[in-house]
# Entry
Amino acid sequence: MKLSTLTNKLTVVLLSLFIHQTSAIWLYLDTLSSLQSVTSLIADGLMDYYTGLQYGQTIGMFSNPYYWWEAGGAWGSMIDYWFYMQNDTFVNITIQGLLSQVGDNWDYVPLNQSTTEGNDDQAFWGIAVMAAAERNFPNPPEGQPQWLYLAQSVFNTMANRWDPDNCGGGLRWQIFQWNSGYDYKNSVSNGALFHIGARLARYTGNTSYVDWCDKVYDWMYDTGLVTEGTWSFVYDGAKIADNCSSVTKLQWTYNQGLMMAGAAYLYNFTGEEKWKVRTDNLVRSSSVFFNNSIMYEAACQRSGNCNNDQRSFKAYFARFLGLTAQMAPENFEHIYNLLYQSADAASNSCSGGTDGHTCGLNWWHSGWDGYYGLGEQMAALEVMQNVRIRDRPAPYTADSGATSQGDGAAGTYVSSTNLDPLVIKTKDTAGAAIITCVIGFSIIGTAAWILI
Ligand SMILES: *[C@@H]1O[C@H](CO)[C@@H](O)[C@H](O)[C@H]1NC(C)=O
Ligand SMILES: *[C@@H]1O[C@H](CO)[C@@H](O)[C@H](O)[C@H]1NC(C)=O
Ligand SMILES: *[C@@H]1O[C@H](CO)[C@@H](O)[C@H](O)[C@H]1NC(C)=O
Ligand SMILES: *[C@@H]1O[C@H](CO)[C@@H](O)[C@H](O)[C@H]1NC(C)=O
Ligand SMILES: *[C@@H]1O[C@H](CO)[C@@H](O)[C@H](O)[C@H]1NC(C)=O
Ligand SMILES: *[C@@H]1O[C@H](CO)[C@@H](O)[C@H](O)[C@H]1NC(C)=O
Ligand SMILES: *[C@@H]1O[C@H](CO)[C@@H](O)[C@H](O)[C@H]1NC(C)=O
# Structure
């Protein structure tokens, strides 16, 4: 199970290569099959949390208490599993899951999630379908929304919520005014808009997305959500009440990753020096999320109080590190080394539970640390499969083999049932207030932990 055992094995293999001069292909396959057998157990463990196909459960959703957004994150991990481990076991179940939650407008704003869904939640489904487009994941049947279309739809609906009236710009955390966090502008929402925009720019070649990325990045920088220079950090967010003048300085791995990979895509697409410098700085500054080269969620893991959401953040961070290494190859060796050592530690941690392959949270712990959950399983899987960046192609674009079809105006064809807050604000304030009262009791802020 442990990758270091694998390394020892490889040393023996290398030695025998030296002696017998065997073909190098064999060595490569040996690495792949070892990784495949380790990750397949962990992927199975992840899918144990998928209850969507059980009687009375919802297709696309994972078991309680995992929120809707994390399902989007988990399907993204299964796309990576298919691509990096070259295993199509979960392909059909993933397509079905991704298509089940697109909602009436094909924009990942299903009406029945309006008490939990914020901009960030929508974005994590958007990031999954963006990857599906870039990886050439099997396309949905004709007549169904296509991966690129869905990603553009998510981008356009998010961009449409840009709010210049408060704090000089930025997205609010929440989409709907009845959810707690509507008064907060955070990095995960804005960073995700930036990130998806960067990937759409490179995929489609449409430079309007770059203009949007500049606008989002500049606003985040001006507001102090992103810093530059030696320590290029991404902070959590700021409240509208004081015009975003007071930044909550919590740092999460996935925020650093969203900005880092977004900058790397922009560098790859535009070749501009400013994006190279920002990428390199964000990569270097990511060192705060590693303890002896082992990835950890610094803001909560040390104190042992990471909530269910936060326990999955390392999954996205690992994914974004892998993408960054491929988009800005001068960072490749540095990132590969961090991923490899973290994967080694994570594999050591995936030895728990009754199934013997449950993954823990603290990867430097000797063996399983007693933690378990969808987030733990996703994070371990992603860090291990991203070790494959050396052998698998970089994300494709429309010009280099990707086949997913889209529409630059996706998401702007609004149906009559659309619950867009702008529509509510201008046309139906009284109605919205009534909805607020009714729904007020069932508010489930995706992350009430923000209010520290
Ligand atoms: C593919 O994945 C499934 C599910 O994890 C696993 O049972 C199977 O062994 C994997 N196949 C290979 C070749 O890795
Ligand atoms: C997925 O579904 C298609 C169409 O039903 C089928 O041809 C294919 O074999 C399935 N793939 C897997 C891996 O189950
Ligand atoms: C929510 O709506 C989607 C379609 O938009 C549907 O697939 C899903 O089953 C619904 N979820 C619940 C919990 O009813
Ligand atoms: C709020 O901040 C923005 C951006 O810094 C600034 O342009 C605007 O004047 C500020 N508004 C108030 C009321 O201070
Ligand atoms: C870093 O890892 C070591 C074990 O290698 C552990 O003892 C220590 O507590 C960790 N540091 C932090 C800041 O969590
Ligand atoms: C863009 O990414 C590709 C694929 O990894 C890589 O070959 C190329 O060198 C990158 N371009 C730049 C400017 O780094
Ligand atoms: C380019 O992207 C912009 C911004 O999202 C969009 O409005 C426009 O329709 C796109 N153009 C094309 C040709 O797709």
In short: Residues 88, 91-92 surround 2-acetamido-2-deoxy-beta-D-glucopyranose (ligand 2) (CB under 6 Å). The beta strands are 184-186, 237-239, 247-248, 290-291, 294-295. Residues 232 and 281 are 6 Å apart (CA to CA).
